[in-house]
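Slide 14.
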Amino acid sequence: MRWGRLATANYRGVPVPRTLGIVLMCAGTAWTAVCAVRGDEGPAAWGTLAGLGLVFAAGLIDDLVPVGPRGLRNHVRALLDGHMTTGILKVLVVTASAVIVVALQPPRPAWARLSGVVLVAASANLWNGLDVRPGRAAKAAVLPGLAFAVWGTSANMPAVVGVLIAAVAVLPLDLREVAMLGDGGANLLGFAAGLALYDLLPDGAIPVAALAAAGSNVLAETVTLSRVIESVPPLRWVDRIGRRVP
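Slide 15: predicted structure.
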């Protein structure tokens, strides 16, 4: 089956459709609908679903347009030169969505909310940077997903539950290079993981997590995450579990 612009060559040069994000978005929508039938939903639940949908749509647009600048730094340079890129549009959409969704969550100090916006937005971009090897981005969401499933306030964010569970379910497809997340799926998954962390962490830990997420983005723009992962044996071992040998 031909996937048109949704198909792209992966790191081994194998054409792979970027369709797993559609599965994740459908799962988040379905779980929100299930909670609505049970009467567990509220404004925060629907707002979370809307925010996730906007982030996915912005990433999907980035997947579908012709190849442009790569990396946040190059997108900023293009903007300074007077060129609006899909990457900058995505940053604006992700940031605005993070502001709205965090504002809909239970009250917290203003500084914790602001740090939460940074955490969620930076996580969305970080997971996009991880999606350069099969299964890497999905594996990174396993721990936040499990923690949120056990201790999270899922009534406020049922869509996050659906997305994170679906990420585990599609991991074998990602590892076998049958399909991949693409920008739409990776941004969506990172946004969901960031929301899960914001919900789970105490107020004092949110700025630390936000700083770590933002710092990882800086690292991705300079050293590259792949180089860091390859240089740390435990990370390299986890990264290669289930992956085909080039």
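Speaker note: The chain has one domain: 15-240.
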